[in-house]
Amino acid sequence: MRVILPVTQKINDSMRDDEWICSKTDLKGVITYANDVFCRVSGFSADELVGQPHNIVRHPDMPCIAFAWCWDTLSQGKEWRGQVKNRCKNGDTYWVDVTMTPQRDEEGKIIGYFAVRRKMTQDKINEMDALYKSLSAAEGSIEERAKLSRAQIDELYRNSPLYPLAHPEAAEAEAATAEEGE
Fold it and tell me: Rounded to whole angstroms, how far apart are CA atoms 78 and 69?
């Protein structure tokens, strides 16, 4: 995990309800396009964003498990929808409701991802902040999270409430097993 500092306690609420942050990445999450709203809200210029891993705006409070959920869903060729706490260049925070979609070539092969992000309501921010704090607690301190292996993150993810969202068949099988046991 890439830990980027500084982090302030300030919330950047400059995104309007009618605006969308848009970006494109390659298969490894490197930004290939950033719209003007993304630049303005994040505080980075397009030149600073393009060519960088998308986690340049990752807030250190975000649990690894949340991104395991995102990439697991996308690797299945599905659209991912979730909420993300991001970090501005100056360390301020902004929350976004994200929809990420795989981009495909003529043969249907995934060649990158397109993401659109909207401003979140305060109620949704409060809900997700509580969930992410509990998930982050399971991962340990920021320093401990930075040292987690891919296998450790995957194990935490499989045991989290996010896994069934990407794998509804696993949740259905678990429910069926529980019913049989009654």
Answer: 12
Contacts of 79 (CB under 8 A, 6+ apart): 73, 99, 100, 101, 102
Q: What share of the chain is helix, strand, coil (3-state, %, to 5)?
A: 40, 25, 35
Name the 3-class secondary structure at 85: strand
Query: What dihedral angle (degrees, nearest 10) is formed by the CA atoms of 1, 46, 91, 52?
Result: 10
- 105: domain range? 21-171
How far is it, in rounded angstroms, from Cα 1 to Cα 78? 24
What are 40-68's pLDDT values in tens digits? 999 999 999 999 999 999 999 999 999 99
Cβ burial of 38 (10 Å; 0-12, 13-18, 19+) is buried
**Amino acid symbol at 44:** F
CA dihedral 75, 79, 85, 87 (to 10 degrees): 70
Q: What is the pTM of this model?
A: 0.85
What backbone torsions phi and psi does residue 90 show, to the nearest 5 degrees?
A: -85, 0
The CATH number assigned to the domain holding 79 equals 3.30.450.20
